[in-house]
Structures are given as structure tokens and as C-alpha cells.
Write a structure and sequence with these properties.
Number of strands of chain B: 0
Order of helices and strands of chain A: HHHH
Oligomer: heterodimer
CATH superfamily of the largest domain in chain B: Winged helix-like DNA-binding domain superfamily/Winged helix DNA-binding domain
Number of domains of chain A: 1
Number of strands of chain A: 0
Helix content of chain B: 55-70%
Largest interface: A-B, 38 and 52 residues
Distance between the termini of chain B: 47 Å
Radius of gyration of chain A: 22 Å
CATH topology of the largest domain in chain B: Arc Repressor Mutant, subunit A
Strand content of chain B: under 5%
Number of helices of chain B: 8
Shape of chain B: elongated
Largest sheet of chain B: none
Distance between the termini of chain A: 63 Å
Strand content of chain A: under 5%
Largest sheet of chain A: none
């Protein structure tokens, strides 16, 4: 791991803090530069991104039976 | 008919409009409830209670927030109440997020997110990891990262400050990544 002014730990913390936010502050620019040159931090970044993607993609389809039970429960079956 | 028109008609007691609103959001709410509960029966029950609350109190809906945000709030409150009566068996808060970022445990994962749909073992891994999160962290992670609400909207839904949302999100991301890493770093497929 590189011994820059910014440590890998700081970068990893920053990824968890700011993923999906606008990254334009001077600190963010330094972090981006570190990321471009550090394989460990790149892997960490991708694994955090994948973590989110896993849970985004894992969806549950509403069963027809649950829909019917819901409309019955609400007294809206006839609508 | 547009959503604001449907809401107005539903407030006047129009059952057809109410039914249409339910149909428009039932998949979203069921899916979100499932993601919080990780259990189909509980997701179904939560969805029923959420729409019952909507039907009962649609007249109080001010329209200041989106209807979807209002429904997320009802689901979240319902799940948080359930969690309080059924104490989390792992822990109530993630106090030390430093524990979840370990620089020596960085590895490339062999499994990609597009494999989730057909991989039941992977689904189990994902269920087990997120079930270990305290409910309030889980809900923040799901609203912000999975459902795509803004940080401010998430703060409104769970009724905490924006910094509190950010802090929970940070810890939830680091914790889940660390849990998945334990299994996926070895190339589990």
C-alpha cells in the first residue's frame, strides 16, 4: 500500500462515507488521485459498489396470491 | 389519471382511485418490505398494514412529500416497531466502524451482482449478512442505496438528522461489505 499523504484507510472510509455523492472538494480530488494509483483501494471501491448492487438486484416479485389477499384485506377486491 | 388526481379522488372516498393507488405501489412496497424483513410472510403482512394505514389516513396526506416517501415512512415505522418488540439477536448498534474496514482483507470478488437472480446460495449469503444489521441501519441503507432516495428524503423517512443518516449509511456499507467479503473473497460461486 502506498504511503501518500492520504492513507488507504482514509480512502476506504471516504468511499463508505461518500459513494454516490458529488466528489469535487480538494480532498475528494486527492482521494480520486490516490484511487487511480492504488490497487487495494480500487478493489475496496468495487467491492462496496458490488455490495450495493447485490442488494439492488435481489428483488422479490409480488405473488398474485398476495395481491389478491391484499385487495381482500382492504375491501377493495371489486375495484 | 395522474397521481395527484388519484390522491384527490381517494381523499373524497373514491374506492376505484384508492384501489389504483394500491396497485401502483404494491410491488414497490412488497419488495421494500421483503428487503427489510427477508421473509415473504412478514413482507406480505407489512404490505397489508402499510396500505391499511394509507387507506385510513389518506385524507391527512398533505402532498408535501411524494406518496412513495409517505409509504416508505409507514413501512419503516412498522418494521422499527416490530424490531423493538423482537430485539435484534446480534446487536443494537454498530459502535466501532473501524472494525469493519480492514486493509489486510482486500480481495477481488469472483461473483458479480448479475448472478444474484439464479444463485440461491448467494441469496442466502446476502440474507444472512443484512439480517445481522440493526434494523435502523438496515432501513437507512435500503432507502438510500437500494431504493435511491436522497440523503434528505431518507432523513425525513426515518426521522433523524442528515448527519445521522450519513453515519448509519457509512457503517452499514462498511459492515455489509465486510460480511460479504468473508465469503466472496474466496471466490464462492
Amino acid at each position: 500500500m502506498e504511503k501518500n499523504k492520504i492513507t488507504c484507510k482514509e480512502v476506504m472510509n471516504h468511499i463508505c462515507d461518500n459513494l454516490g455523492e458529488d466528489l469535487d472538494s480538494p480532498k475528494c480530488v486527492a482521494i480520486k488521485e490516490h484511487l487511480e494509483n492504488c490497487e487495494s483501494c480500487q478493489k475496496y471501491f468495487h467491492s462496496v459498489e458490488s455490495t450495493i448492487q447485490f442488494y439492488k438486484i435481489y428483488n422479490a416479485e409480488l405473488p398474485e396470491e398476495s395481491h389478491n389477499k391484499l385487495m381482500d384485506y382492504l375491501g377493495l377486491s371489486d375495484e | 389519471m395522474s397521481e395527484p388526481e388519484l390522491i384527490e379522488k381517494a381523499k373524497e372516498g373514491n374506492r376505484q382511485a384508492l384501489a389504483q393507488l394500491v396497485k401502483n405501489y404494491e410491488q414497490t412496497i412488497y419488495n421494500f418490505a421483503f428487503k427489510v424483513c427477508r421473509n415473504k410472510d412478514r413482507a406480505e403482512h407489512t404490505m397489508q398494514e402499510t396500505f391499511l394505514s394509507m387507506v385510513k389516513s389518506i385524507s391527512q396526506f398533505s402532498g408535501k412529500s411524494k406518496l412513495s416517501t409517505w409509504l416508505y415512512t409507514i413501512v419503516s415505522n412498522h418494521c422499527l416497531m416490530q424490531a423493538r418488540s423482537n430485539k435484534n439477536k446480534f446487536f443494537d448498534s454498530l459502535d466501532d466502524d473501524e472494525l469493519y474496514i480492514d486493509e489486510s482483507e482486500i480481495a477481488e470478488w469472483k461473483v458479480t451482482p448479475d448472478q444474484v437472480a439464479e444463485n440461491n446460495e448467494l441469496k442466502e449469503i446476502l440474507d444472512n449478512a443484512i439480517q445481522k444489521l440493526p434494523q435502523d441501519y438496515k432501513i437507512v441503507f435500503l432507502l438510500r442505496d437500494v431504493e435511491g432516495l436522497s440523503t434528505e428524503e431518507t432523513a425525513n423517512v426515518v426521522d433523524v438528522s442528515v448527519p445521522a443518516v450519513k453515519s448509519r449509511l457509512h457503517r452499514a456499507r462498511a459492515f455489509l461489505r465486510s460480511e460479504l467479503n468473508k465469503v466472496l473473497k474466496n471466490g464462492k460461486e
